[in-house]
Amino acid sequence: MEIRSLQYAVTLAEELHFGRAARRHHIATPPFGRHIRRLERELGRTLFQRSSRRVTLTPEGERFVDRARAILADINELAASLRADGGMPYAREPHRHSGPPRPCSCWGARRRST
User: What does the buried/exposed string (b/e) look like for 29-59 if buried means 16 or more CB atoms within 10 Å of the residue's CB?
Assistant: First the structure.
């Protein structure tokens, strides 16, 4: 499970609208919805009840979102604490398009047996 999954579920619980929740994360609605469905499949539980007019939390969804909020708060507190101690100057995810991975320089030093 990804941190992003927790964030998306919490946002959807706050908005109770896929479009508004997706906009808050700066993504289109279809991929946002797919991410929520994938999370539900991963958990084996329906977190959100959907109809053509509304989205509501299921009892399992309420439990999940409450715990997700606590976990996200713990993560934010940990990051702030590390930054304050000088152990982590900044925290951000690497950019998705930062380029392909480069081979380790030690790969070239390996001898080939002939």
Answer: eeebbebbeebbeeeeeebbeeeeeebebee
